[in-house]
Amino acid sequence: MHELAIAENIVDTVCTRAAGRPVRRVTLRIGALTAVLPDHMRFCFDLAAAGTAAHGAALDLDLRPAVVYCRSCQVEQRLPDLIPLCPCGSADVTVTTGRELDIVSMEVA
């Protein structure tokens, strides 16, 4: 479960930025290709936040689909699964969304 290590890093980052103030809410942008499972991330965030300035903070997730631009058919398409192949069968693609793993915002008291 790699979500725990990610959650620990997120909590460390927001607590450092909060400079001792209580963190009320954290918003993350998570792409489908990161293989981060939303329910696991929420659970791990709560574990990592226990005893910190982020204890009890709400976690909002902005989930982004995997989208590729296919150089063969010159179309941008959402991937039906996590394999970066265009539905036309070409592997000549550029991932345009789906790799995000960002702290978008945080709310402190």
From TrEMBL:
Keywords: Metal-binding, Nickel, Zinc. The keyword Metal-binding applies. The keyword ATP-binding does not apply. Ni(2+) binds at residue 2. Gene3D superfamilies: 3.30.2320.80. Zn(2+) binds at residues 70, 73, 86, 88. InterPro entries: Hydgase_Ni_incorp_HypA/HybF_CS, HypA/HybF. Pfam families: HypA. Transmembrane segments: none annotated. It comes from the Bacteria. Belongs to the HypA/HybF family. Involved in the maturation of [NiFe] hydrogenases. Required for nickel insertion into the metal center of the hydrogenase. This is Hydrogenase maturation factor HypA. The gene is hypA.
